[in-house]
Amino acid sequence: MKISEQQRQHLIRSRKDADMTFCELNQITGLKPSELSMIESGHMDCDQEAYKLICDALGVEAIESSQKNVTNVPTSKEHSPHVSGEAICLSCKHEWVAVVPVGTTWLKCPNCGLLKGTGKYPVVPEMHWLCTCGTPIFYITQKGAICPMCGTIQAW
């Protein structure tokens, strides 16, 4: 069984926190640096066994995959399907649990009040861009894709 997006993001954060390179992980796990890079970028599947091996090498506990809960309620003007899950503010980094209507793009941060909140573990396609700072979220403009976290422009 392959790892979830939540578990993949856990690997990315844990490796950053441990300040460990792919080469250093290779020496401990035996996985090639190119494989580790492709697992982090989402370009290669990773099974649960390899995930736990990498977590052990990083000195962190493996997490269980949790699915977001979508609840269908009677359709009326006051009710619509909602999604719940962990959220994070891209501005102040505050984290909270949010319940919002399906299709909500940005969340108002309860800490700073800015409309820069997003799902912590968003649904992403198998192949996607990541900024050098690690975020997969971009503003798309005529000049290129702009990262809302660090301002880097990925030119076309």
In short:
This protein is an alpha+beta fold and 156 residues long. The protein has four helices and seven strands; from the N terminus they run ααααβββββββ. It has helices at residues 5-18, 22-29, 33-41, 48-58, and strands at 69-71, 82-89, 95-101, 117-119, 139-140, 144-146, 153-155.
Folded structure, characterized:
Helix 1 (5-18) runs parallel beside helix 4 (48-58) and helix 2 (22-29) packs across helix 3 (33-41). Mean pLDDT is 83; it is low at 67-73. The protein contains four helices and seven strands, in the order H-H-H-H-E-E-E-E-E-E-E. A hairpin with a 5-residue loop joins strand 2 and strand 3. It is of the alpha+beta class. It folds into three domains: 5-58, 434 Repressor (Amino-terminal Domain) (Orthogonal Bundle), CATH 1.10.260; 80-123, no CATH class; 125-156.
